[in-house]
């Protein structure tokens, strides 16, 4: 079956149906301060409690997860980095004598997360199941009755993970959580003293037990989200007040969500358009991180979003498990990359409503590649294998559209256009599209066309990028071509013309 966008593009061009803007857009030149984009921009954060469900273990690795991660390596040449942490990290206790890898204790069986996690040495087998991946292992800061428990966990990690242990993290979203389990007089200064003394104990234990390894810390892993109000906890204040005197931090990590799945809830399809499928809103949400990254550049650490996703509290059905979320993910990722944010760890958990894939059958939900994964694959494809890739936003007029230029060194090499106008798969009207013309350098003779498409922004399946499906049911997450690739587009008079249906995106790879 030919994909429908070809027909729709023709409708736009020849019959004039829809909102074909037909403007000639100039591609901005590369600004002097642009930095190369990390090939592992698309990275992951796996909820601590559910890491074994995602990874499996040595004797039975989760091949589906392994395939989905391997796809990134094939596209960019490097694996995503994986942080194992989240709220459940601060409810996890390491028991050196426990035989089972992990025991999850749920307060209510239908809760999204267990209230307690007990893990033993076998938990670390999961780190060997997915491939040669660099990990960030989360340690519990909330637990406050034994330093030994903390250092045992750190030592178990460095002993079993060796060089695959990239960083530790101590505590999750303390700027929001500390008030729930520390006394009322717990201040920023208390936090600084606690973090400094606990990380000193961790590093001493690691130096003794794992000589030759040198893992640092990802910190402070605070969260910025609409519901978090911790006005006296600013990172500028943190670093000015004696945090990390030994400079063991290697990466500054913040967490970010675009909203929360909590009352009052706006209608879901309205929120999808308003909050996620909205370039202006993405720009506004990322702005504080861009500013903070610039202000903290003097520290000499990369700035990453160590845990992020669309809507906090594990997402919202109809908004984060649908194709519109994949389009949000592409725009959010490219905007962040264009503004020197080094990595985005998209948070994952079993049965979560925003997860990129469901790794095993659980609560009636079968293993499945979900829409956000396809957005991640498109971003990875835009970045590719180059070591000097730079990304620049191409300003457009509306909230519901977005475009980027990708450079190899100083040479324009790719274009991305995202049409963020919601389109329901059940709609009966012809699918409208927007028509763009870009002015290109004279050496460009044509372009390869790869589209991110689905029946609608509310689709949970039938998604492809470049005609390729990564569905579990086809080949367990390996790529399968299900649509023919569209023919090359020609470049006439140094101009390329491309039609982008509502709720879809396109990657043009320029050919000389
Ligand atoms: C990915 O790359 C590996 C190693 O080069 C190769 O063995 C494998 O066939 C590739 N997979 C796909 C789906 O291209
Ligand atoms: C490894 O995974 C298999 C399959 O889920 C499970 O039966 C086994 O108990 C796990 N091993 C450990 C040590 O947890
Ligand atoms: C905070 O309150 C606790 C009792 O809840 C007390 O033991 C501790 O000394 C107080 N700390 C400071 C810094 O005032
Ligand atoms: C912030 O600090 C000020 C001054 O110390 C204090 O009055 C205020 O209550 C604090 N706010 C919060 C939310 O702790
Ligand atoms: C997009 O977001 C901006 C900023 O939050 C808002 O002002 C605007 O109304 C939104 N546009 C749409 C189409 O929802
Ligand atoms: C701290 O370490 C980082 C590398 O992780 C380095 O770039 C920075 O200059 C160091 N800062 C100080 C004050 O030594
Ligand atoms: C980038 O340009 C360099 C120099 O022209 C070339 O060798 C390299 O293959 C290009 N990389 C990509 C990913 O196109
Ligand atoms: C999609 O369907 C929902 C629910 O029926 C409706 O509220 C929304 O306006 C529709 N959106 C578009 C873009 O047609
Ligand atoms: C054993 C332990 O972890 N104690 C810590 C409890 O928390 C306070 C700060 O609130 C630290 O100072 C202690 O070291």
TrEMBL record:
Keywords: Glycosidase, Hydrolase, Signal. Residues 403-507 form the Beta-glucuronidase C-terminal domain. Its EC number is 3.2.1.31. One of its GO terms (molecular function) is beta-glucuronidase activity. It holds the Pfam family Glyco_hydro_79C. The keyword S-adenosyl-L-methionine does not apply. It is an enzyme of class 3 (hydrolase). The keyword Zinc does not apply. It comes from the Eukaryota. Residues 1-20 form the signal peptide. This is Beta-glucuronidase. It comes from Penicillium ucsense.
């Amino acid at each position: 079956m030919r994909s429908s966008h070809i027909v729709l593009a023709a409708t736009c061009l020849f019959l004039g149906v829809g909102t074909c803007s037909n403007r000639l857009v100039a591609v901005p030149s590369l600004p002097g301060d642009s930095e190369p984009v990390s090939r592992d921009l698309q990275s992951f954060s796996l909820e601590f409690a559910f890491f074994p469900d995602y990874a499996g273990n040595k004797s039975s690795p989760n091949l589906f997860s392994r395939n989905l991660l391997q796809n990134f390596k094939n596209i960019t040449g490097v694996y995503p980095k994986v942080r194992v942490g989240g709220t459940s990290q601060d409810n996890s206790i390491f028991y050196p004598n426990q035989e089972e890898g992990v025991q999850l204790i749920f307060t209510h069986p239908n809760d999204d997360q267990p209230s307690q996690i007990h893990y033993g040495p076998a938990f670390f087998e999961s780190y060997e199941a997915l491939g040669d991946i660099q990990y960030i292992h989360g340690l519990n800061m909330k637990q406050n009755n034994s330093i030994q428990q903390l250092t045992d966990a750190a030592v178990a990690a460095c002993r079993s993970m060796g060089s695959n242990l990239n960083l530790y993290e101590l505590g999750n979203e303390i700027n929001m959580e500390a008030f729930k389990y520390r006394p009322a007089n717990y201040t920023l200064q208390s936090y600084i003293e606690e973090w400094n003394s606990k990380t000193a104990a961790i590093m001493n234990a690691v130096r003794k037990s794992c000589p030759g390894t040198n893992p640092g810390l990802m910190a402070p892993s605070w969260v910025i989200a609409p519901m978090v109000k911790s006005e006296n906890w600013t990172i500028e204040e943190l670093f000015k007040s004696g945090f990390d005197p030994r400079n063991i931090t290697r990466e500054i990590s913040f967490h970010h969500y675009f909203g929360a799945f909590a009352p009052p809830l706006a209608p879901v399809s309205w929120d999808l358009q308003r909050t996620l499928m909205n370039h202006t809103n993405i720009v506004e949400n990322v702005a504080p991180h861009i500013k903070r990254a610039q202000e903290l550049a003097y520290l000499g650490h990369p700035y990453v979003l160590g845990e992020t996703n669309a809507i906090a509290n594990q997402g919202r059905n109809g908004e984060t498990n649908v194709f519109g979320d994949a389009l949000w993910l592409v725009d959010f990722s490219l905007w962040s990359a264009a503004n020197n944010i080094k990595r985005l760890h998209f948070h994952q958990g079993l049965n979560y409503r925003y997860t990129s894939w469901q790794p095993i059958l659980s609560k009636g939900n079968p293993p499945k590649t979900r829409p956000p994964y396809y957005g991640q694959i498109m971003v990875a494809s835009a970045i590719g294998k180059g070591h000097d890739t730079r990304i620049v936003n191409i300003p457009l007029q509306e909230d519901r559209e977005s475009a980027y230029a990708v450079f190899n060194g100083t040479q324009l090499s790719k274009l991305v256009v995202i049409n963020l106008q919601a389109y329901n798969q059940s709609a009966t009207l012809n699918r409208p599209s927007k028509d763009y013309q870009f002015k290109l350098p004279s050496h460009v003779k044509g372009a390869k066309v790869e589209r991110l498409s689905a029946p609608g922004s509310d689709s949970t399946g039938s998604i492809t990028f470049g005609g390729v499906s990564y569905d579990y049911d086809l080949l367990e997450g390996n790529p399968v071509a299900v649509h023919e690739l569209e023919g090359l587009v020609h470049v006439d008079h140094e101009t390329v013309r491309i039609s982008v249906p509502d709720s879809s995106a396109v990657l043009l790879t320029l050919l000389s």
